[in-house]
Amino acid sequence: MSVASYGMTDVGRRRDSNEDAFLEDDDLRLYAVADGMGGHAAGEVASSLAIETLAATLRAALSRPIGSDVDRAEQLLRSAVADANRKICESVHGRDEWRGMGTTVVAALLVGEQAVVAHVGDSRAYLLHDRSLARLTSDHSWVSEQVRLGLLSEDDAHRHPMRNIVTRALGNRDDVDIEVGRSRIQPGDVFVLCSDGLNTMLTDDEIRDALLSHPGDARRACEALVDAANERGGEDNTTVVVVQVRWPG
Ligand code: CA
Predict the structure, then answer these.
(1) What is the CA(139)–ligand 1 centre distance, in A?
(2) What's the 18 CA to ligand 1 centre distance in angstroms?
(3) CA 164 to CA 54: how far, in whole Å?
(4) Is 213 helix (H, G, I), strand (E, B) or coil?
(5) What is the pLDDT of residues 71-105, one digit of tens each?
(6) What is the 4 CA–ligand 1 centroid distance (Å)?
(7) What is the pLDDT of residue 249?
(8) Is the pTM of this model over 0.85?
(9) CA 2 → CA 5, 90, 129, 186, 246, distances in Å?
């Protein structure tokens, strides 16, 4: 199958800087979104460092093609995210102004008929298949822990004042816990990565509807999602990468 992607990031309506960063590379089938934190200069440094490290590490590793070796893809993705974590931790060392600097990351490699997704924090991956939208990642956040424990409903979590608190991030500790999963992808599917600026402004149903309104057009789907988040208030930076999976040719 073939892929066509589009990615964009937008500062939103309330913030004066954009601490998100993203990567989309259809040749390597490598996609990522990072959402920095720690005050705006530090947040920008952390998310761009994460994206640059992922891109450099994986471009080098994938110069030898891995075909549809999903185990290898998982290994490469995991070690690239660990590299990014190490780079950020090293940058924080000894610099008081960058204390507390960190970033989320969600990164995906599409190999054969599988999407391998690695994530830390609350940036998400979704898959639209057969008109239904599945969340491929579970947020490493305080509210989502409360949901898993049955102490908050999804609706409460969506509106909760502490919904921005992440429980895992790159840049906080040397041995970061990276969650990796795999999902089958098929022609006609739409694969999405986003920062929480999208999914705190829109529900999953609204994200699905925006994707369904622009079938086969990654760019317009992406723009529709960012516009919708801004119309809803644009309280945060919004970053979206949309990948259309197609039949070959
Ligand atoms: Ca954010």
Answers:
(1) 13
(2) 9
(3) 24
(4) coil
(5) 999 999 999 999 999 999 999 887 888 888 999 99
(6) 25
(7) 62
(8) yes
(9) 10, 38, 16, 10, 5
